[in-house]
Every structure is written in structure tokens, then in C-alpha cells.
Amino acid sequence: QLHLVESGGGLVQSGGSLRLSCTASGFTLDDYAVGWFRQAPGKEREGVSCIRSRGGRTNYAGSVKGRFTISRDNAKNTVYLQMNSLKPEDTAVYYCALPYPGVDCGPALLLPEYHTWGQGTQVTVSS
């Protein structure tokens, strides 16, 4: 059974950094592309970044490009989202998920194309 757990969220001041983790159990995460999404209060869930399987291509939403970096640690079966230069508008619950077969890690991360959502981790950026 596929299972993902997000961690690493917290409260940080504007300009600070956090590293989120998405850890898999029951399967080898490197065999899958992984997407990160976020949902701010009162807003729809939106795609943030994705990484292809086996260290392949990465993509980022325009709002985070240059500030966030997605990467893998296969020894830990984990995908990370390093978030730098955080802004109050980055405040949200962050989720990781897996794309359905045939869905590429492209510039647009569409919610219906992803499954096996984790429980999310809260990121709060104070001004």
C-alpha cells in the first residue's frame, strides 16, 4: 500500500527557510515522480513543484521559482522541498502526492492527476 508522510513545517519569519520532507513507505519513491502542492486558507490547492522519477526533470510554479528547490534522497526514500526567502504568501498546508501513470512532471500540476496524498504539513510565514 502506498503511503506518504509530510513533515518539516513550522513557523518562520519572512525571509527565512524551511525544508519539507515527503517520506514514502511501502514502495520505492524513486520509482515515481512526486509533486508538492499547497493550500492556503480560503484558497484552492495549487501545484508548487514536481520531480520526475530517478533524478529527472524538475518543475516549479512561477511564484516559487528561484526560491524553492525539490530534490531526492533515495537512501531515505524521501523527496525534499527546500524553501528559501519565504514570504507571508507562502503560508499554507503543504502536501505531496504521486501522479497517475502517464502523467508527466510538467509545468502545470493538476490536482485530478495526482493520488496518494499525505496528511500535509503546516507552513506559517510571519511578516
Architecture overview:
- This protein is mostly beta strands and 127 residues long.
- Strands 2, 4, 5, 6, 9, 10 and 11 form a 7-stranded mixed beta sheet that branches. The protein has a 4-stranded antiparallel beta sheet with strand order 1-3-8-7, with no helix packed on it.
- The model has no long low-confidence stretch (mean pLDDT 95).
Topology of helices and strands:
Blueprint (H helix, E strand, L loop, with lengths): L2 E5 L2 E4 L4 E8 L8 E6 L6 E6 L6 E3 L7 E6 L4 E6 L8 E8 L14 E2 L5 E6 L1
Parallel strand pairs: 2-11
Antiparallel strand pairs: 1-3, 3-8, 4-5, 4-9, 5-6, 7-8, 9-10, 9-11
Give a brief rundown of this model:
With 127 residues, this protein is mainly β. It is 0% helix and 47% strand.
